[in-house]
Amino acid sequence: MQYEATIGLETHVMQKTNTKMFCACKYEYGAEPNTHVCPVCLGYPGALPVMNEKAIELCCKAGLLLGCEINPYSKWDRKNYFYPDMAKNYQITQADQPLCLGGQLTVDVDGEMKTFTIERIHQEENAAKNTHVAGASLVDYNRAGTALMEIVSNPCMHSAEDALAYMTAVKQIMQYGGISNCDQEKGQMRSDVNVSVRPVGQKELGAKVEIKNMNSFAFIKEAIEYEIDRQTALLESGGTVDQETRGYDPDRGETFTQRTKENAHDYRYFPEPDLMPVKIPAEQIEQWRSELPELPAQRRVRYVQELGLPEYDAGVLTADMATSDWFEQAMRHTKNAKAVSNFIMGEMMRLLSEQNCSISESNVTPEKLAGIVALIDAKTISTGAGKQVFEIIFNDGGDPKAIVEERGMAQVSDDSALEGWADEAIANNPKPVEEYKAGNPASINFLMGQVMKASRGKANPGAVMQMLKQKLDR
Amino acid sequence: MADLHKLTIYELSEKLAAGACTSVDIVNDVLASIDATDGKVGAYLTIDRASALEQAKVADALRAEGSTLPMLGIPVAIKDLLNVKGQPCTCSSKILEGYTAPYDATVIAKLREAGTVLLGRVNMDEFAMGSSTENAALGKTSNPWNLKHVPGGSSGGSAACVAADEAIAALGSDTGGSIRQPAAFCGCVGVKPTYGRVSRYGLTAFASSLDQIGPISKTVKDSALLLEVLCGHDKMDSSSIDMDVPAFGKSLTADTSLAGIKLGLPKEYFVEGMDPEVEKTVRDAVDHCKSLGAEIVDVSLPHSKYAIAVYYIIATAEASANLARFDGIRYGLRVDGKDPIELYGKTRAVGFGSEVKRRIILGTYVLSSGYYDAYYLKAQKVRTLIRNDFTAAFKQCDAILAPVTPTPAYKLGEKTDDPLKMYLDDILTTPVNLAGNCALSLPCGFSSSGLPIGLQIIGDSFAEETILKIGHAYEQTTEWHTRKPEIS
Question: Is the pLDDT of residue A471 over 90?
Answer without folding.
Answer: no
